[in-house]
Amino acid sequence: MTSPSIIPVILCGGTGTRLWPLSRSSFPKQFLPLTSNSDNSLLQLTIQRIKDLNGIQDPIIICNEEHRFIVAEEMRKISIKPKAILLEPFGRNTAPAIALAALKALKIEKDPLLLILSADHVIEMVDKFIMAIEAGIKYALQNRLITFGIIPSSPETGYGYIKSHEPLDEFSLKGSKIESFIEKPDLNTAKQLITDKKYTWNSGMFLFKANLIIQEMNKFCPDIFKYCQEALIKDLYDLDFQRLNKDSFSKCPNISIDFAIMEKTNLGTVIPLSAGWEDIGSWDAVWKLAKKDGDGNFLKGNIIAKDTKNSYLSSEKRLVAALGIRDMVVIETNDAILIAKMDQSQEVKSLVNLLKQKDIPEGKEHKKIFRPWGFYESVASENKWQVKLITVKPGEKLSLQSHKHRSEHWIVVDGIAKVEIDNKELLLKDNQSSYIPLGAKHRLSNPGKNNLTLIEVQCGSYLGEDDIQRFEDNYGRTSQ
User: Fold this and answer.
1) Which of 201, 349, 357, 448 has the greatest CB tally within 10 Å of its CB?
2) Which residues of the chain are modeled with pLDDT < 50?
3) What is the number of alpha carbons within 13 Å of residue 51 lying toward its C-beta?
């Protein structure tokens, strides 16, 4: 029997604020390597763990418009070319995202199975996960909407629960009709629920035919179907990305697939899953998964710890010395430090909200900012000057641009730079430099085979990123 075609749909939105300061809205957790046994990001691991599934196709990825170049680079690193990267101008929860993916998938194939996965989950036992998917395929081909219920290992209050019609057995992988969904319970309720084998954690992973989920959306949430269809009706392509019509997408209800469909349909089936699943939503979850020393500590980077137990300590650059602490999280980055009790790590989100309320930029942005041509990192700044470290990928070039309020000085530290200033060209090598006067039309490109790294010194009355007038650009970002 030929294996059915399965298109993975990777939901890659979200900002992961509970994992601040590593995860921020400019570079959230799904793009970080948060497992101690792999250098790959959570997004890359999500795709790699299903690569051997029979019938699996390249994915459809749905992400925030701001993260499009990060997603593209993540896929390039693992040699994956997505069938589509759909760019949400703003988040509208999982129901609109899945509707978009289903509509897009039906333009690609007649009626594929869609495997809906979140980009920020960890699954330790991949073979068991694949077995559960294969069990789910049989039900999906019988026109059922499949979700995967995690066999509870503890009375968690951070997850919703699914009640099945029959008790679930993780070894038989027999599915059961969904009876109801339970919102995140209090601790006493959670303790009662896990004693009954009808209850599992809601994983947020799904499997179904593309036409079937569209049929149910037409029945239960026609507005979502209508506005998502309108949002895709014009093929607004930008390089490898497809943008959505903002006006249409803004009218979509902000609602999860659970509320929109799964709680209303009679076609829901839950498959039991026990494969070391974890939703990486807080630092205590990261600590639980990490490889720890004999004192229960995970230490990464420049760390010295004495008389310290059951803690997660991470340093990017500076020395972190810990003495006599217990059950703590300490995260050092180049511009922020988090110090928190492990049992309060769920509250980091409220701390980030406070930073945003006070308009503190570290609450949203990293010093390292990704662009289609590479990335830059802010090294130091004052009111009238700023120093950046810029990396340009081989063969890439920045836009032809000018600035009204600043001049720039470029110093090459590694690689070869092609510099254009007011129609004049020059090649710069290591330790050579060039000055770009205020108002000059200029462009930087990398003609070499290796990364180009240079230091940029900006001087002027205003140094904001919006002081750029683009005349030509390879990525469709011209100002005129």
Assistant:
1) 201
2) 479-480
3) 9
Cβ contacts of residue 216 below 8 Å, gap of 6+? 145, 261, 265, 267
Residue 451, CA atoms < 13 Å, CB-side half-sphere: 11
Mark out the alpha helices in 239-371 (DSSP H runs): 246-250, 257, 283-289, 348-357
Q: 257: alpha, beta or left, given left = phi > 0 and alpha = psi -120 to 50? A: alpha
pTM: 0.87
What is the structure's pLDDT at 82? 95
CATH of 6-279, one of 3.90.550.10, 3.20.20.140, 3.40.225.10, 2.160.10.10: 3.90.550.10
Task: Report the phi/psi class of residue 328: left, alpha or beta, with left for phi > 0 and alpha for psi in -120 to 50.
Answer: beta
339 burial type by CB count under 10 A (0-12 exposed, 13-18 middle, 19+ buried): exposed
Gyration radius from the chain CA atoms: 25
Looking at residue 126, its amino acid is V
Domain extents in the chain: 6-279, 283-357, 368-472
* Residue 437 backbone phi and psi in degrees, to 5: -65, 160
Phi, psi of 58 (to 5 degrees): -65, 150
368-472 belongs to which homologous superfamily? Jelly Rolls (2.60.120.10)
Count other Cβ atoms within 10 Å, centred on residue 435. Answer: 11
Do domains 6-279 and 368-472 share one topology? The answer is no
CB-based contact 151:161 (threshold 8 Å): no
Task: From residue 158, give the alpha-carbon distance in Å to each of 23, 148, 155, 278.
Answer: 19, 17, 9, 11
Cα(46)–Cα(123) distance, integer angstroms: 9
